Amino acid sequence: MTKPSPDAPPSSLNLPNVLTCLRIVAGPVILLWFFIDPRSPGPFVVFVFAAMTDFLDGWTARRFGQITAIGRILDPIADKTLTISVLLALASTPLGGDWVFLAAAATIALREVSVAALRAYLRWSNAPTRLSVTNLAKWKTIMQFTALGALIASVALSSAGLELFGLCVLWIAAGLTIVTGWDYFAKAFVLLMNRSTGAGS
Predict the structure, then answer these.
(1) Domain 15-194 is found in CATH 2.130.10.10
(2) What is the pTM of this model?
(3) What is the pLDDT of residues 131-161, one digit of tens each?
């Protein structure tokens, strides 16, 4: 793979975007697989592959100059689709009756949907404003994927130890979702107020 000419915009049909689309598909695949056979190692394998694409799509896009507008839109959609699909899959297991899991899962799902709606509003408003991903938000994603991977494995292996580890990390992720969610909404409020003030001046 070679870098495109600096004068030519990168094609939307490139490896980073293909990897992102695979991550979008992986979520429903894991959810369906859980309903068929939750103790199969298949969902864990698919999840690990999907989590790896989260790193690979960004790295290849930067390394080979293939960052595109559609890629910026699809990447957060892929993360949220994967996360919410796995949470739903886990809720179909005995974890679904555990308030410790459900409270953390609901917190994460609410944050993901709210931030996705906020980003969509800012992007498609009359004067779109972009919120960049913070380092803390990246750590939030890492914690989420670590917790979800451990919980998927705990179901397949019937491991109480992995389940406890996964729940602990999931609560860390839930805490980070609250902090980063508040940060996004606070920044969005300031940006929208500045835009409103600028429009009226």
Answers:
(1) no
(2) 0.85
(3) 666 788 889 999 999 999 999 999 999 999 9
